[in-house]
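Researcher: Here's my situation. A collaborator sent me these components and asked whether they could plausibly form a single complex. I don't have experimental data yet, so a predicted model of the whole assembly would be a useful starting point for our discussion.
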Amino acid sequence: MASGQMKTHGAGTLRSADDGSDVILAGWVARRRDHGGVIFIDLRDASGVVQVVLNPEDTPAPEDVLHGLRLEFCVQIKGTVRPRPEGTVNSELPTGAVEVSAAELSVLSPSEPLPFPLDGRTDIDEGKRLEYRYLDLRRQRVADNLKARSKAIRAMREVMDEGGFLEVETPTLIASTPEGARDMLVPSRLRQGHFYALPQSPQLFKQLLMIGGVERYYQVARCYRDEDFRADRQIEFTQLDFEGSFWGQDDVLDVLESIVVRVVSDLRDETIETPIPRMTHADAMERYGTDKPDIRFGMNITNLSEVFSDTEFNAFSGVLSGGGSVRGINAGALGLARSGLDALVTSAIEAGAKGLVWMVVEEDGSLRSPVAKFLADGELESIKTTLEAEPGDTLLIVADSSKVVLDVLGQLRLQVGRPEGHDELAFLFVVDFPVFDVDDDGGLSPAHHPFTAPADLTELLESPETALSKAYDLVLNGTELGSGSVRIHDPVMQATVFDVMGISRDVAEDRFGWVLEALRYGTPPHAGFAIGIDRMVSILRGEPNIREIIPFPKTQSGADPLTGSPSRVDDAQLEEIGVRVAPDVLTAWEKAEESPDD
Ligand code: ASP
């Protein structure tokens, strides 16, 4: 790796072919064994680890320096590579056939005792890890994640570059772009009382680039959304954002396939079969109860309403006559005891159902269930046939409004069937999204940003609640990796869509007048997408949390324990930008921090 005066080789690069070479290494003491005589250290640098032997007879360093070496001291070694003695070869380590016999040792920088061990053998409190992230980054797992992230971004850039995309940066101090989340605001000093927003995405700028004739744009873009944190969400995150002119949906999905194939191949040395399967949003909801199905396993949701059309079982007949449905999944041979089945009932209720009917198929084909006695023989038979049930299978059935039924069964399906980890990768395109999501109370909220083209404007105007849009998502193992759409390129259609979305003429003119105006100057049809890079890499690395992939993430509560952000600022600084903090907004923990003795 290195070849300079301070170091000639990367520690992790040395192999038998280097035997006999004189090397200068520099890095950190990752492990050390000092039995009073010969000292062995594992010297780690960015390239890996090699064993170094410090024999006081060959290494004329003062005793106190030799024996004073401690973990994570930053040191330089001059020495010679030699084969490890027979019987001590470590085949698990890439450098395991060699060691470096040190002739000179210099301590470049000592280290205080560490707040936690870096050898990966212990579970460390995340708060501590983030407070000392610079030490955490020295741990193998985190270092490997950083490398994977860099590799993924490089692969993406290569695909974009080969496709003739222009990398363009867009501003991060902007007027707010609606992506459905809360904006992070930045006060303006020069125009006091006015605020910039940090971009939720470069959406409008990339559309302006299309109007500007760029035709193929991409950016590795930082985005900010002031949302509640979850395992796969941070307030700032990174997208691969791209857009193309004279494009429809298929052009975007083709590019996405190339990206997915390249990134997976570079990160995991695996081949993703193309085409990546496509599923309509309606099918996804009907069969998996979610718009981001995990298709690594079956357990499809099946409509059983027909089976119970004449049922005398009140719980089902009541729901059906009220316009709801009865649906179920065959969860396979779960082999759960009564307590396990009861726990599923509790999960279903927590997920919003009034209850859950479970049935277990006995060896003789009969159905064991608390409700079996209320159902006719024909109904029991039909349940088995419709759900293709075999002896040993557990069947889970919910009756309620279709929305609740699908949602609950979708969650139960994941709970009982989802494979652990991410060994298998199941990518999926979900297409034909509706324009609106229907809320629990029947209200409509836009499913995508308002620049998304409707499939058919007349349909949108006549029946907005069922109208489809030209929006699509990329899903991996049940997680949404990103979304995109064909955009509106006609100012009249854009104004109409603002209207339908409940953005009044005045507000539209005030906030997006410039968009409407820009669309009037020969806007090309265009479409695009944005992939969440942190999310994608975390799944490909089998990491449960995107914080493992972000170099300097924030905690669950949005804080950075290392640098202390967010922090209070001087009154003078606030005065300069014309901002005054109301005393009562200081939260309890800030007050507690101010007066720790109280
Ligand atoms: N701006 C959208 C987002 O961040 C992606 C897109 O429509 O291209 O989700």
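Model: Some features of this prediction you could bring to your collaborator: The first helix runs from residue 63 to 68. DSSP finds 17 helices and 22 strands in the chain.
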